[in-house]
Every structure is written in C-alpha cells, then in structure tokens.
Specification:
The protein has 322 residues and is mainly β. The protein has one domain: Jelly Rolls (Sandwich). The chain has 1 helix and 20 strands. Strands 3, 4, 5, 6, 7, 8, 9, 11, 16, 17, 18 and 20 form a 12-stranded mixed β-sheet that branches. A hairpin with a 2-residue loop joins strand 16 (246-254) and strand 17 (257-262). It is globular, with a radius of gyration of 18 Å. The two termini are 34 Å apart.
Amino acid sequence: MSARRRVLPLGVLLLVVGAACAPFAVAPSAPAPTSTTAPTTPPSEPATPAPAGDVPAPASAGKRWVATFGEEFSGTALDTSKLSPCFDWNYGSCTGSFNGGREWYAPSQIRVSDGTAKLVAEPGSSPQSDGAACLGGGCTYRSGLLSTARPQAWNGSDYLYQFTYGYVEARMKLPTTQGFFTALWMLPADPSYVYRSEIDIVEVLGYDPSTMYMNYHYNNRSQAFTPNQGTGNNGACAVADRTGDWVRFGLDWQPTHIAWYIDGVKCGQFNGDSSTIESGPMQLIANHMVDHQWERNWGHALADTTLTRQLEIDYLRVYQQQ
C-alpha cells in the first residue's frame, strides 16, 4: 500500500521487500538470548472470560473469548512488566525513527495519568544523533512507543507478551495534525529481526483524520492485502473526521482469516490458510511518529517543527478463544 521505509538504528541493516513496510533485518552483534519463549498469558494475569459485547468478532462453535492480556493504564507510571517504551532492537538507548523521521523514542515520552497513556511527541532540547535513522542525521523530536517486545535485546530477556491468534483491541484518541502519524501494528516475535509478516491494525496520517489504513503484509512481505480502496475509504467502515474522538480499533487474527474492526464494525477481511496467514507468535506495537517518510512523499510534511502532539491510549487488550 505504501512506500514506507523503516530505518534501523545502531547499525542494523534494513532490507525492504517489495511493498513491505516493517523492518526486515540482520541483527547486530550481541549476546544471543537464552530464551525466546514467553507464556501466552502472563502468570500474574490469568485468563478471564470476556464480558458479553466486548469482542465484536464471533467465537468459533463451542468456544468463548477470554482476556489473556490487558493494560488499562490505571496507575501513574508505565507498567514495564507488561509494556516496553522501546522497540525490539533496543540496545540500551531505546529506539530511533523507523522511517527517516524526526522522532527518537524515549521512556520519558510515555505519560500515564487519569486512566490513559499519552505518547507525547515534542521537540527535544538537542538533536539525538543517529545518521542511519533520523531525518537529516539527527532526531529533533522525542516521542512515545509501547510494545510487548523484549525489554533489552542483548540480555536474553523474553518478550513481555507474545501470542498466536486472538482479537486485539485498543481505544485511542488520534493526533490529527499534519506531520504526525499513528500506528498500531503487530510483528512476529522473532529475535533475529527477520519479520516475515506484518499486520497493521491501523495507521493514520495526521493530515487526513478520516482514512484509517489497514494492511496485512505476508509471504515475506512480498504480498499485501488491505480493506481500504485508496484515500477516503475504510472498506465497509464509515469515513468520518476522527479529530477529538475516542475510537476503538480491533483485529481478529485466526488460522483462516484476518479481519479489521472500527468501533465494533467489521471493515474488511482477508481469507486464507496456513500458506498465507501468519501462524505466530506475534508482538504488539503502538507508536507516534513525526514527519514520517510516507507523509513527506505524499507532500504532507510537518509544517511547524515547534508543535507538540500526543497519541492517547485508553487500553490495550488481547482476547483468545478457549
């Protein structure tokens, strides 16, 4: 769908395959993880039945949805036992821009209060130098990212959460300003950084608060499916200006299909089998980008480099069938 390019910092090599959008890389030299297997459900949070109406996707015959992961942001700080403020290739200084943008992801940019997490993008006091990752060789913004990746890529830690099949949902308020970009997406939990697939639950370019881009990249990301039929189309879901609105974004990932939901309405579905649908496990990522390459290529670059904007998240949840 897009010509996005996520650039890896710290010497990690990026390989873009066809229209693929996620990092596809050779890992930097570092101690090998001692384990890469994490429980589907964290021990501290046992699975509980989903309340009626919480999951719009139908469960298979004889099964029910249960909640296996959830973060409601009810405290005053990020719970780092559930979510990391860095991406999977974090080697101690968090994460630079994926797409030659202006942002450097930092833990300080996750602000938790009043039951929500704010991923704040704001100009930094000095550029973060990273010629491989940042626009113009220096990231002039600090921004926020949340993931269920390993807390550190070098110390053998497990993924905080990984899962195979389920319904994912987040309730978010979007930063609908030109030059800011929201992404809620999934990648394989693969410490080799060879991401053979990518599921974009939603991507929103700030200049266009009505188009909710949804994509699935598969077959080593050489093929793609989207419910969107271009700009101003959200598949079977309504097109509306989302500025200032809380919006529920959901994804039902099963062995035979992947379906996208907005506010409980199914927007579109990809049907497949074991040869086309990712069989997991996968990790979750939400991030707030600044001056994304995609936006710049479309002529909608950040017009004012003094702006501060935030992506606000009410909750992140995963349900699975049992």
